[in-house]
Write a structure and sequence with these properties.
The chain is an all-alpha fold and 250 residues long. Helix content is 79%, strand content 0%. Helix 7 (145-159) packs antiparallel against helix 9. The longest helix has 33 residues, at 2-34. The radius of gyration is 21 Å and the shape is globular. The model is unreliable at 6-17 (pLDDT under 50).
Length: 250
């Protein structure tokens, strides 16, 4: 009896220490990401997964950061490998909790990354998944800023496909899905309202306004964008691109 009680106490203590370790690693990962040290943040999230493989936040954040960092790689095969890995982490996060809006968003984002290096039917499948998982994320959380951004990007990307790509999309979707610049702009504007600091959303919103012949609105969006603080490792580059676009419109 005495040894049984001691075993239970030891187990409870071990679980407490275990939880403390994960909490500490999460805080370290979040701080590294806030400090724009994304490689360090990714390493911390992966460290959490070694301790707690089913940790939902660590899974979807690992997916997001793997895709984001991988997108900066110059070698296309390395980018493809990173995007495939990002998708795998997102799929695992979704298996752990299908009702997690962040996991659904992460899989939509991973599919969007894959679509940039795919062609034909593979590109069409990735665009289909991008929409389906972004839709699910928004059903769970209608105010999810990054999922709203994904829907805006999906509308913009579908609208901008070339003839061959549209043919593949028609086959996979059973017809050309409805995607308009107005819908893209509406999604981007909703994302801006949900998260006024999401820099990439401003850039793509401005591009959509330009394509929709609404130059004044594009200029307004870009003027706001270039004043925003960087929140990801890509934001300075996005702001630089925004300044170049702004200069071309004035």
């Amino acid at each position: 009896m005495k040894y049984g009680i001691l075993s239970v106490i030891a187990l409870i203590f071990g679980c407490f220490v275990y939880a403390q370790d994960v909490d500490a690693l999460l805080k370290e990962a979040e701080k590294a990401e806030k400090d724009l040290k994304e490689a360090n943040a990714l390493a911390k999230y992966k460290e959490i997964l070694q301790v707690q493989p089913a940790n939902g936040k660590a899974l979807w954040k690992t997916s997001e950061l793997t895709g984001r960092i991988g997108n900066r790689l110059k070698d296309e095969k390395q980018r493809q490998a990173a995007f495939t890995e990002a998708r795998q982490f997102a799929e695992t996060a979704l298996k752990e909790n299908r009702a997690d809006a962040d996991a659904n968003y992460a899989l939509a984002a991973a599919a969007a990354r894959v679509s940039t290096v795919a062609s034909g039917k593979d590109k069409a499948r990735s665009l289909r998944d991008m929409k389906n998982y972004a839709d699910t994320a928004l059903q769970i959380n209608p105010g999810h800023a990054r999922a709203l951004y994904m829907m805006g990007k999906w509308n913009f990307d579908i609208f901008s496909l070339n003839v061959g790509e549209k043919a593949a999309v028609k086959v996979l979707f059973g017809g050309m899905p409805k995607a308009t610049l107005d819908d893209a702009i509406d999604n981007f504007e909703k994302a801006r309202a949900a998260d006024p600091l999401l820099v990439i959303n401003y850039l793509d919103l401005a591009k959509a306004y330009v394509k929709n012949h609404q130059t004044d609105k594009a200029i307004e969006v870009l003027n706001r964008m270039i004043k925003l603080p960087p929140k990801t490792g890509d934001d300075q580059d996005y702001k630089s691109e925004g300044r170049t676009l702004l200069a071309s419109l004035q």
